[in-house]
Amino acid sequence: METLSPLYAVVDLGSNSFHMLLTRQLADSVQVVDKVKRKVRLAAGLSEDNILSEQAMAKGLECLSFFAERLQDIPEKNIRIVATATLRLAKNRAEFIAKAEAALGHKVTLLSGIAEAEHIYLGVAHTSVSANKRLVLDIGGASTELIVGRGFTVKKAHSLNLGCVSYNQKYFSDGTLSSANFSRAISAAEHAIAPIKADFCDIGWQCVLGGSGTMQALAEMLIYQHKPSVLTLDFLYQVQMQLQNFDHINSIDLPGLSTERSPVIASGLAILIALFQQFSIKELTLSSGALREGLLYEMLPGNRTTNIRQRTISALSQRFHIDQQHAVSVKRQINIIYSQLKSTWNLPDGNALALLLASGDLHEIGLLLEYKYHQQHSAYILKHADLAGFNQSDRKFLVSLVLLYKGDINLAHIEQQSALDDETAKRLLIILRLAIKLCRRRKDDELPNYRLWLNKKVLNLSLPEVWLMQHTLIHDELKQENDHISRLGYSLHIDVDNNSST
């Protein structure tokens, strides 16, 4: 039985935090069973001579003793435990690793900087939807990894000895968030990045992704402001200016920024600004996975290189017993209507269409609970489910579509999403609603050929007269739809085609 499939565990002894990820395979997807995170800040225990202090080791080993409790029931072949930058640097790492292995009862693998970078890239490739050629950035506690690749293939990887914990000690040790401290930190990071810049730029990329704590914290600040979670250099400068208004690191209080991340946000931000400036990055989007996910997918049986979104949708469809044949019918009509209105409405391809089709797959996910409030149930499930391949903006847009695919339209749900501009979001909602209305009978062979065109703000839908006479309920509901989409600034006119019977 799928529910009795074995657990998989990945433990990451990072420079800032120790993480443990527990998962199992379920319905063609990866289900997260548990996550444990402890702020050990191992990098802060390194002396100038790269000797790890007894206090830092004790704190780390205490954390691992907690992790050991959870690992004891998991098959050994399903466990990966890795150490990263701080232990690469520590001269007394052998002592700590030996004690760590004794505490855990399992082998600890010390990853090289390149191996860490490659696993980070694969974690991104397995869990994120983006252009095929990508630059991946990861700012850790004591190192920063840069990887450029295509699909699941790493083209170039590098690990730099600069991280948010080590830079915090070096450039913000007095806790002062001054312009001078920021300038010194940014300049030092740019100096470290400059020698490898040309090799990466020669390969090139179409998009930039990152998922480390610094980037996640900054994205959460944008989400708090109801903005797309896309990082730009202007936003980074804005956060820098806000931080400089605080007298001390301990007094940082920015909306949307967690107190846990505050102590190292300035140093992480300085490194990220240097990366943006050196590589002329216009925008960075969050990845859904990184090192731990790269290690996990390496263990999982079978080929896991299929489209992550489709895998997520397929898993949800199975788990919630969605009528997949009906979903296919709805998506077919979405594509037909989309193609007929694309040029008139200047509709975008790519992610916008992919999200619209995903809503066709998932709009009935809440039916398993009950019919009466199934749209609210669908929205709740999509709001809280593990949607690998969908970022926060994508998720919010999906939620708004399933809430509004039929019935009254609350414009607030459109205005609260940030994946698309409001007008495009309204147009995609209209397409979804019409596609679902036309599929009301849930029989593909009963759908006629039809035309849909726009005259100013009037949508004209031409349907065969015979078909309309045979489907009076759908005809009536299409006429009622005019009242609903008027909330979106459009009207719907049903044009009876007397010359066609199919």
Would you mind describing this structure in some detail?
The protein folds into three domains: 2-110, ATPase, nucleotide binding domain (Nucleotidyltransferase, domain 5, 2-Layer Sandwich), CATH 3.30.420; 114-293, Nucleotidyltransferase, domain 5 (2-Layer Sandwich); 308-448, Hypothetical protein af1432. A hairpin with a 4-residue loop joins strand 6 and strand 7. With 502 residues, the protein is an alpha/beta fold. It has helices spanning 54-71, 85-89, 93-104, 113-127, 164-171, 179-203, 213-224, 233-243, 262-279, 291-299, 308-319, 324-345, 351-362, 374-384, 392-404, 411-416, 422-438, 465-470, 472-485; strands spanning 7-13, 18-26, 29-38, 79-83, 109-110, 133-139, 144-150, 153-160, 207-210, 230-231, 284-286, 451-455, 458-464, 491-497. The model has no long low-confidence stretch (mean pLDDT 91). Helix 4 (113-127) crosses helix 10, helix 5 packs across helix 9 and helix 12 (324-345) runs antiparallel to helix 13. A six-stranded mixed sheet has the order 8-7-6-9-11-10, sandwiched between helices. It has a five-stranded mixed sheet with strand order 3-2-1-4-5, with helices on both faces. It has 19 helices and 14 strands. The chain is 49% helix and 17% strand. GO terms for molecular function: pyrophosphatase activity. InterPro entries: ATPase_NBD, GppA/Ppx_hydrolase, Ppx_GppA_C, Ppx_GppA_N, PyroPPase_GppA_Ppx. Residues 308-481 form the Ppx/GppA phosphatase C-terminal domain.
Spell out the key features of this protein.
502 residues, alpha/beta, Nucleotidyltransferase, domain 5, Hypothetical protein af1432, 3 domains, 6-stranded mixed β-sheet, 5-stranded mixed β-sheet, 19 helices, 14 strands
